[in-house]
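Hi V.,

You were right to ask for the full record rather than a summary. Here it is.
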Amino acid sequence: MSKIILKKRREESLLRFHPWVFSGAIAQTVGNPAEGDVVSVYSADGQFLAAGHYQVGSIAVRVLSFETEVLGPDFWDVMLARAYAVREAAGLADAPDTDCYRLVHGEGDSLPGLIIDYYQGVCVFQAHSVGMFRAKKAICEALCRLYGDRLKAVYDKSSGTAPFKAGLDLVDGYLYRAPGFESKELTVLEHGHKFIVDWTEGQKTGFFLDQRENRALVGKYAAGRNVLNLFCYTGGFSVYALAEGAQHVDSVDSSAKAMSLVDRNVALNGFADRHGSFCADAIEFLRGVPEGKYDLMIVDPPAFAKHRGALDNALRAYQRLNAAAIGKVAPGGLVFTFSCSQVVDKEAFALAVFSAAAQTKRNVRILDRLNQPADHSVSIYHPEGEYLKGLLLYVE
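Predicted structure:
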């Protein structure tokens, strides 16, 4: 096994269990590791610190273990069992009204570079690193042992997430299918609401599981209100609002494929008579909305910044979007606004929304601060994992 030797006094972050080794901290590489190999990391004075996947880039090692230099043959079984235990503790693994959840959330489950979402017996696998992509067969076998007869399929959807410059064969497809299982979509339950998940053609792994509890919160406030759901994707917020008594909901997304799925989900739950669908750009749609038409708005855009170089432009985009929403919502109305950009921290997002509110000259109160759910857990040693942040605003 190749060894990574750090520069003097560059081991502090690993001693605090941060799961990344940056290339600038490395003094010497002993051996010739290929990208994705497991390497061991040592301090300048020879102390073993960690073992992890080696990769090309500013993050040179993603740590898998701080305890042992060599990962044992039962490593994947142990780590997936630990991740499953967290979902059990959160009441998700066997919930009677919810049969979809995130099983593995990267660094939050001490498996940097790996995402696994579970949909009623189908596990959708996404590798964000070469090491995890190369380990997919072993991970699939461990999933089969973890779930047993409950497992219907394991689908690899890494073509849009694994490093494309690494020369990998990035073709999405099944790693495992139970005999007779041919479906490419399923109807899952989330808090008793029905949603169609298409893991082959849908965005991400097929559904945005990270907004589950925020969708429930929207439902809590929706009764009797006229609701606008911007960037609605498959209509999760819309279904919750309608189920809890919203007077009417309009859903807006620029994707015709997404809007088709919204209509199917709304109809599946029996609410088509109180719902309108609009395939349109969210900002353009807002410009045409009469002031006061909606008294509850959901603003949940895709990540405006995926790297730090885009941060300034992203913050300006959040400000413009939120100013448009705050400016149009009815007096006494609510705005649920979100950012899923990891490089936009909570303070920067709140400042962008503050600037938007000031621009409208309306009195705005923060009723709640919103985040990601328990199955998107954040390691206390890796605060960067807290990517989803939101605010519930009351606008006079």
